[in-house]
DNA sequence: ACGGATGCTGCAAAGGATTGCAGTCGCCAC
DNA sequence: GTGGCGACTGCAATCCTTTGCAGCATCCGT
């Protein structure tokens, strides 16, 4: 039913090849001819059949995005950025959600890989070995994770932690607790190291508290242990955990920031709405998605693995001070 | 590089046609032959090229999902449901976000329509005329919206409102305010009507308050007007608005639920974390996405527009009572 | 006037899978 | 023995687009 290239060719009085060229390499065809072709295209509302094109070019014009959990606002924002930027390049985005399941992730990625030109893997939970194997056999860009020789975009966790620490130290805090996320999480390691370095530089103390799920429930579970460290401020793995902390601290009658300051990471929409509103390190989430698309498209245009060197973006966080952080209580 | 059907055929010692049949109509080929074919498929890791198949069958095996805003947790959940169910049928999902822009929506839908077998439009902002036109020229399933002759899944807004009202009336509330969402929103009309009917049935009074953005900010803006109605309870268009109400009420020193009860709709994750936690009507969000996929696939299998009659799912809400609703204050 | 370069266009061959039609073979029944 | 049926399998066309190569003018330079 939809118009084909032959319909256009007939209407314009040229061959299908000329139509094809008029559309994809305009400078190769005579201006007058080109005008006739574009007029015919316009009139018929012709759009090239992507399956047919893909068959011969070997490119689908599609990319895939894999995230652990779409319902997590952080990943939803990344997805938003990805699909906005992809649209600009007329690339469609398959979105897949692994439900935080590392095993399912690998299978899903393999299945998806056949249908797309490349994949964006956001905070993948898979092991390094699986990840490298996948990157070997398909075009991959990582977000929030690094792997040898694979392009990606990451956050400057170190810098973000420095901002948070500078803020807390200025408020008089000298002993600060860290509530870690999942052990398998790449970010939790780097954030913990960044925090440690920053605290060392300011001569302040670090108290690490276990490993918790990166969720509201994780924060609730962590609160009592954080309090027990005797720290006057807590930095949480992410905002969801921080908001969980706030809930449990409130339930225990511990005042925030009066008795304890709380700082999160991410700046999801919810953080502004928390009570008290949450001081946090804002990470540019949509920007990460946008850059990932750019990187991926660059890889697709130049599949030479050597030139992938250096194609790694780093984004910087910004400290957003709200109500949950305040002067350290007097000893 | 990947194996083609010819490679499989050669290895199995049959023709490509037989391979094709062995895979898509197994009962048509001899059991022994079929075994050889499947063995060859296994060995080569063969997967049919979807572009080539699509070229001849006219089907892509892809569907599209269009939502106003992926960063809105409600839509993120629907998207999660859609892609989970689609995967079960080996269908890939394109996700597109319109940024709440009705004009962009129409263009985006048209572009996407060429690349998929059908579309799921979730809470589309487009006008009825545009919507009908789109449904005419492509397979469409609506979520949270109705249109003449178009299958879809909606929520039983009336029933949800009845539950909320029964709860509030039992707590002694006799005058209840409604904070409406965008005028163009299909749900806002139906929720308002449902609320009105339920209140009438209980002999209670309704006070409507303007139309507000379906966001946290909308709730903040609505709070003072809601208070001014003299109502002892407020039902909000959705949870984001309700949480905005809570924030402004807190800022004004109005106690919830002591002075005023607040009820939301949706039950997004945030509602549990609000302070006070939010009483709300939980809508099955992922379920809506799953059903939408089922409906769409049914339409694809039977494109006869007449049989589309009756293919409309209705989902029921469930009242979740939390801290934000309590006994009406004594007059 | 002729060789050759230049600019544009058409021919035809892919690309991988599906499917209507026709062919083969074995077997049964008459 | 032959006609015919049934169960499989293969041939070849088809879906639509892209692209290497060849063809055709035109025009320039000598």
Word description of this protein:
Two copies of one chain form a homodimer. By secondary structure, chain A is an alpha/beta fold. The first copy, chain A, has 13 helices and twelve strands. A six-stranded parallel sheet of chain A has the order 2-1-3-4-5-11, sandwiched between helices. In chain A, strands 7-6-8-9-10-12 form a six-stranded mixed sheet, sandwiched between helices. In chain A, helix 9 (186-201) links the parallel strand 6 (175-180) and strand 7 (205-211). In chain A, helix 1 packs across helix 2 and helix 10 (216-228) crosses helix 11. The longest helix of chain A is centred in the last third of the chain and has 17 residues, at 285-301. Chain A is elongated and about 90 Å long. The mean pLDDT of chain A is 92. The A-B interface holds A 2, 47, 49-52, 54-55, 60, 62, 69-71, 73, 76-77, 79-80, 83-84, 87, 92-97, 99, 108, 112, 114-115, 216, 243-244, 247, 250, 269-270, 272-275 and B 2, 47, 49-52, 54-55, 60, 62, 69-71, 73, 76-77, 79-80, 83-84, 87, 92-97, 99, 108, 112, 114-115, 216, 243-244, 247, 250, 269-270, 272-275. Chain B binds a DNA duplex (30 and 30 nucleotides) through residues 4-6, 14-21, 24, 28-30, 33, 48-58.
Strand fraction of chain A: 15-25%
Overall geometry of chain A comes to elongated
Total strands of chain A: the figure is 12
Q: What is the H/E string of chain A?
A: HHHHEHEHEHEEHEHEHEHEHEHEE
Describe the structure concisely for a colleague.
The structure is a homodimer of 331-residue chains. Chain A has 331 residues and is an alpha/beta fold. In chain A, 47% of the residues lie in helices and 18% in strands.
């Amino acid at each position: 039913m939809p118009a084909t290239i032959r319909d256009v060719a007939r209407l314009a009085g040229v061959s299908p090849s000329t139509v094809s060229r008029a559309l994809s390499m305009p400078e190769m065809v005579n201006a007058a001819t080109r005008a006739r072709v574009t007029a015919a295209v316009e009139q018929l509302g012709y759009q090239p059949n992507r399956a047919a094109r893909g068959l011969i070019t070997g490119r689908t014009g599609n990319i895939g995005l894999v995230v652990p959990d779409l319902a997590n606002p952080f990943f939803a924002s990344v997805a938003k950025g990805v699909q906005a930027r992809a649209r600009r390049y007329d690339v469609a985005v398959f979105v897949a959600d692994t439900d935080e399941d590392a095993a399912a992730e690998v299978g899903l990625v393999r299945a998806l890989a056949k249908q797309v030109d490349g994949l964006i893997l956001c905070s993948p939970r898979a092991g390094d070995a699986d990840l490298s194997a996948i990157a070997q056999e398909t075009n991959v860009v990582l977000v929030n994770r690094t792997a040898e020789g694979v392009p990606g975009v990451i956050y400057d966790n170190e810098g973000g932690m420095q901002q948070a620490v500078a803020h807390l130290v200025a408020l008089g805090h000298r002993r600060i607790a860290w509530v870690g996320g999942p052990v398998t999480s790449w970010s939790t390691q780097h954030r913990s190291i960044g925090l440690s370095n920053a605290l060392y530089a300011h001569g302040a103390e670090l108290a690490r508290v276990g490993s918790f799920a990166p969720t509201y429930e994780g924060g609730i579970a962590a609160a009592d242990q954080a309090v027990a460290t005797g720290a006057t401020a807590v930095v949480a793995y992410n905002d969801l955990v921080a908001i969980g902390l706030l809930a449990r601290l409130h339930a225990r009658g511990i005042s925030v920031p009066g008795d304890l300051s709380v700082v999160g990471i991410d700046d999801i929409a919810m953080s502004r709405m928390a009570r008290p509103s949450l001081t946090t390190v804002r990470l540019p989430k949509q920007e990460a998605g946008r850059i990932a698309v750019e990187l991926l498209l660059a890889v697709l245009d130049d599949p030479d693995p050597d030139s992938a060197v250096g194609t790694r973006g780093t984004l910087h966080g910004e400290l957003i001070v709200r109500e949950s952080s305040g002067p350290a209580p007097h000893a």
